[in-house]
Amino acid sequence: MTRLVQKRSRKTGLPPGTAVHIGEKKSEQTRIQLLHYDAVQVTERELEDIEDGESLRPGTGVTWVHVTGVHDVALLDKIGRGFGLHPLVLEDISNTDQRPKFEDYGDYIYVVLKMLHDGPSSRDIEAEQVSVIFGKDFVLSFEEAEPTVFDPVRERIRAGRARVRERGADYLAYSLLDAVVDNYFSLLEQVGERMELLQDELLTLPTPRMQQSLHRLRREMVLLRKSVWPLREVLSGLERGRSGLIREDTYIYLRDVYDHTVHVIDTIETFRDMIGGLMDIYLMSLSNRMNEIMKVLTIIATIFMPLSFIASLYGMNFRHMPELDWPWGYPLVLLLMVAVTGGLLLFFRRKKWI
Amino acid sequence: MTRLVQKRSRKTGLPPGTAVHIGEKKSEQTRIQLLHYDAVQVTERELEDIEDGESLRPGTGVTWVHVTGVHDVALLDKIGRGFGLHPLVLEDISNTDQRPKFEDYGDYIYVVLKMLHDGPSSRDIEAEQVSVIFGKDFVLSFEEAEPTVFDPVRERIRAGRARVRERGADYLAYSLLDAVVDNYFSLLEQVGERMELLQDELLTLPTPRMQQSLHRLRREMVLLRKSVWPLREVLSGLERGRSGLIREDTYIYLRDVYDHTVHVIDTIETFRDMIGGLMDIYLMSLSNRMNEIMKVLTIIATIFMPLSFIASLYGMNFRHMPELDWPWGYPLVLLLMVAVTGGLLLFFRRKKWI
Amino acid sequence: MTRLVQKRSRKTGLPPGTAVHIGEKKSEQTRIQLLHYDAVQVTERELEDIEDGESLRPGTGVTWVHVTGVHDVALLDKIGRGFGLHPLVLEDISNTDQRPKFEDYGDYIYVVLKMLHDGPSSRDIEAEQVSVIFGKDFVLSFEEAEPTVFDPVRERIRAGRARVRERGADYLAYSLLDAVVDNYFSLLEQVGERMELLQDELLTLPTPRMQQSLHRLRREMVLLRKSVWPLREVLSGLERGRSGLIREDTYIYLRDVYDHTVHVIDTIETFRDMIGGLMDIYLMSLSNRMNEIMKVLTIIATIFMPLSFIASLYGMNFRHMPELDWPWGYPLVLLLMVAVTGGLLLFFRRKKWI
Amino acid sequence: MTRLVQKRSRKTGLPPGTAVHIGEKKSEQTRIQLLHYDAVQVTERELEDIEDGESLRPGTGVTWVHVTGVHDVALLDKIGRGFGLHPLVLEDISNTDQRPKFEDYGDYIYVVLKMLHDGPSSRDIEAEQVSVIFGKDFVLSFEEAEPTVFDPVRERIRAGRARVRERGADYLAYSLLDAVVDNYFSLLEQVGERMELLQDELLTLPTPRMQQSLHRLRREMVLLRKSVWPLREVLSGLERGRSGLIREDTYIYLRDVYDHTVHVIDTIETFRDMIGGLMDIYLMSLSNRMNEIMKVLTIIATIFMPLSFIASLYGMNFRHMPELDWPWGYPLVLLLMVAVTGGLLLFFRRKKWI
Amino acid sequence: MTRLVQKRSRKTGLPPGTAVHIGEKKSEQTRIQLLHYDAVQVTERELEDIEDGESLRPGTGVTWVHVTGVHDVALLDKIGRGFGLHPLVLEDISNTDQRPKFEDYGDYIYVVLKMLHDGPSSRDIEAEQVSVIFGKDFVLSFEEAEPTVFDPVRERIRAGRARVRERGADYLAYSLLDAVVDNYFSLLEQVGERMELLQDELLTLPTPRMQQSLHRLRREMVLLRKSVWPLREVLSGLERGRSGLIREDTYIYLRDVYDHTVHVIDTIETFRDMIGGLMDIYLMSLSNRMNEIMKVLTIIATIFMPLSFIASLYGMNFRHMPELDWPWGYPLVLLLMVAVTGGLLLFFRRKKWI
Hints:
The structure is a homopentamer. Chain A is 53% helix and 14% strand.
């Protein structure tokens, strides 16, 4: 399961602006993918190390540097120097326990997001931190591990016919945000299906096992919520900020991602509501089941206790018990017992218990 | 039941602005109805295909193109080119998993709504997406399937004496929104009746079956809420937006739909509150019922256990049990039993159990 | 019981601005009371029909037309023409399923309110719609049925010494609003008393019947809330609107009604809180009661089951049971039984069950 | 217990601005204390009646008139005329069912507060209404009954060395508000102690009696909340209002009372949260206790029912029951019984019931 | 456990602005640490007493006076005079029951915070009040007791290479705030771990003991919330206030602490949500367990009651009971008993109870 809070203790007491990797180390190797494109051509390279940020930007077109793995602090420092990033930005990239946020540093805008996907054991949702930094002619993106949801974007750039090729770094950054938000929908789709299944089971035959499924669903919603809610502020902030780095015709796309995010949030809230409803259903089923069990017990006890009492009565060994000597004593007692049973059954039927 | 989330997976990874039909295909055939009117005359045509948006607009009067079925992406593209729509608008029309919203593109305003009606099996509420686009002299409306709530509006236009004939495209668009919101009231009316019925049943004799009715009501409220809440923002946004496409004297009508929407929202919240109350009543009834069952069991057991014990006592086979030889032994024991029973009944009455 | 939603189906499909009576027809006859006053004199008339609104306004003083019964749409139309009302206003007056609101039409202000009173069978709160329209020199008020809370205002005008006589139509309108809000207090007073009574009963001896009282209280709070919350917006809107129809020195009175409304809302929320608390108390009582019942059962069973077992043991018919022949067998067994009972009683006391 | 709503029925139908005493009459006698001070001297007088407000204000220094008891409407009228108060103010002073509020009448500011203290039987919190009116050189304060929390302020004025002596009426008014808010803290201190005690009891041994204590705590929080929440608006309103009656250097003190009020509100909300937690604990304890009771019952029944059955079996009177004649029959049956008991005990231990 | 409300009674009735120590006296000795630094050098001194604030500020560099222990009111007064603090500030420093807040007094800014750490018995979270005052060239900090979280900051200043040395008093103040907020994360980390552990236990085998752990977690969240929520306002207030005491390039750091605080708040709310979920799980487990217990009881009773009845039947002593004399009577009865048992077991299996 994803930890709710990352171990930060390694960082306590260090001066602010110190980049220290916080969080699980999800990939062993750090991988740097460089992609440079304009409307005419695309060049792609895998970098071993990074030397000088400036040389990566030829002046025209858009440079996209994608880094997988954020635990190599020395590398982050080099990138930071190369692209002129503020120390707090580097600190935030390597600290994977960040709340989604954006910051406008004038020359570049820094956005932190959470990417969610089912964990390997498909037991819980895993959150992975994604950082996107974009300036006038470059985009830096940082992920904790592969696989990435950015591959389709890369494909579109390569393919050459996409809108992204004719537009600037702001549109590329938007495409990355869009890919992350799109990914939330597919996650919600899966969760929604599991929830519908659970609902059908609950309404037919509830079992104690379902309470764990319910708890898991609820926990996932809590995690989702924590990741997606702040994203709304991020996107509306980007829109309101009206940074010079974002062209006018990109805003309509940002508005579109914003709408999608609000839709995701609505759906999360709806799911929370539904899960609350399922919990109520489950509790009611438990109560109903208890009532049924107790009814069986009460019916059995109420019928057999009087009968047993009558039988015990005539099992007493008193010398003087006239009934015992009557020739019709036994049949009469049997009749009495039948009468008692019948009476009690009538009583239960009147109470609508049977 | 309406799915809570539509399958979007077909769309994941595609570039933004690509129109792909998302959602259930609710109508087989796409149908295009063209209606052109001004204060003097009305012409109506069923179109096979659409060639050129411009030719549909003769320059005067209002052109209303109503499309039933949104899965024919090629057709949408043609309409889009004809009326100069943004690719994101076309994408949103064909993606039926949209949150209600409006967008002002300058030349036209795009509004997405949800129309709700009882499903065919009348088991759950179905949500259908309605898109309305209006410009200076045209209105485009898109529905997923027939039947439509727009028929009365069409009737009024045909009839010739209606206010709508003397006014522009903005008033027609308003009439369509009004028809959708009016429809919510009739839905709430039905739900409200079912709820009142359920309440009466719950207060007289609760059965386990009711918990499913309660769950269904609650689920419907969740769906309704998700559809109607965003509509409020849409309408207040339209009002505040003060677009040049909407004439001054139409705003008072928009304000009216806005008020209706707030009323619908109030009613939904009231219903949610009531359903919560019914759930509490149901849970209390279950507890009360359990108490009653247990009381019966306890009374029976408490009376017959001592009696049976006394009977068993005198069923022991000890050689030396003086009571067994007393001539009044048996009657005395019977008397003792009557006394015990009487005492216990008094005890229960004092405890107000019987 | 008051319906939660009024039947609106009669209206579905009609063009907006069509006055159709929606709701229960609460009075058979429509009654029109005309009252004209200035600081010097008062004239009062009962009208059969209304011909021309203008003639009712002599130019000086204030004209108050009070209409009881809103189902006579033809009459409303006449009044509408006479006083120059917008069709949407007439539609709203006759549709008694309105959310409280106000609208400033420049020449007049239209206010919709809900008046609440105990129903005839005093089983539930009834909501009645009140419309107040005031211009420079006239006030129109519409009620669904008699009796009215406006009578004291009328009395004060007749009496001649009241502040209302020296002031304009705006002050009269304020007096009507004040009368409606004052009425909420007396309703809350009654509900509060019922709630305190219920609380005392719940804390002494809860019975299943109380769950219906609780439900009724809760339902009434839901209805009250739905009626009063929007009134706050109405009054703060009137205040902020700064319409030319309201004189400066009337605003302090409007502010006063506003404060009263907020007080009513506070009290409603407090009541909701208290009712929630009573429900919790009731549920806890049920659980406690169940515990007590089960304790009695368990004590009885735990004591008599071992005793009965011992008795049954010596009721076995084995030929070789040496204890049966012991002369002290019977007394010893009785002693054993006493010892067992004593031990169990000690056990229960240690567990604090008895 | 403090009534949740005061009887207002006496007032229904009266014209607005009519002073009528609403609420319990808490003091028999009305007492008027006059205190006049400046930096140099203090004069103090008890007034029998009030004649002319003006004569009470010599032109320099601050005049403080404190009235205990608000049911003497005639006296209030005299004071009102003397100090030029608006009729609505007088109405609000005598109506003790007010929501805390402030109103700026230009020449004076009117503030309504609630003072809370434990009732005489210390069974519930009592709310008492305090009105403070201050102008350029006077302060009027009205209380329902003695004892007052204003005594320390009076002491400080008499003592002569206090800051209050050098400052104006605004600072005195602030001192009174501060005294009321300070009083909330001591109340919360008591409630907090009761709550901690209750928590300790609940975690050790919950008894049904505690549910009444919980309910009382909750009810008190509801009352407190209703009194203190509006005070926040009052104080921030006073601050924002920037009335000419309040000197610049008094605002920092007003800000301080505001902070205290927010702190009180925070604490109330924290307490509400804790009480909710205690209720959950209590409910869980009830469930746990029930489980324990049922476990005892089930263990006893499960052990003795089979044993009794075996004993009954060999108590049957069939002529041909070979076991009865075996010499080792009886011991073998006893052995069987021990084995059954042992097996069941093992079963229970495996289920972790014992 | 930390008291929810501190005893303030010592203060009631005192004039505002009187410094009185409120709260537990956490350290015996008051300790004053003086640190003066600029980019070039650092001087450090432990002060016995404080004479004159001015002399501590040589005109260049930053003076940091850190006081441990706030119960020595006389000392506070001296410091107050030395640095020109308002009496209300001194009052707030010594009253340790403050809500986090900040106040801009022009020449200096006063910030109150809560530092949280596990108590000595590690039974509950302890809250300690920290006051930070900073002006153009000085920082005063007050703590209730050692150990302090400010030590790392002191270390960094001594080390000489840190950014803090090159910047002003505002950056030092920020560093102190940052240290406090960082500390919240490590606390949340511990709480999160305890919560995850509890969750695992709850999902495997719930015991009554866990309900105390749940309650403790919940209580801690309430305390945390009360301490951290107001901090958000403090930090956004500092940012918006744009005081001249804070340099432009420090704001980005303040923004960073603000983001951390929001993250802490998000995490607290997430934890509250999770704890609510755990409580539900626990309640469901209790219900499930009860159902299981009752099922065992019911199965046992339902099987053995009929069997015992049959056995008792043939233990009756009627003279004329033909079955008793049948040679196959006994075996037939045994067979009947086996049949009854089998039938009941089938019944239970069909009901899915076994």
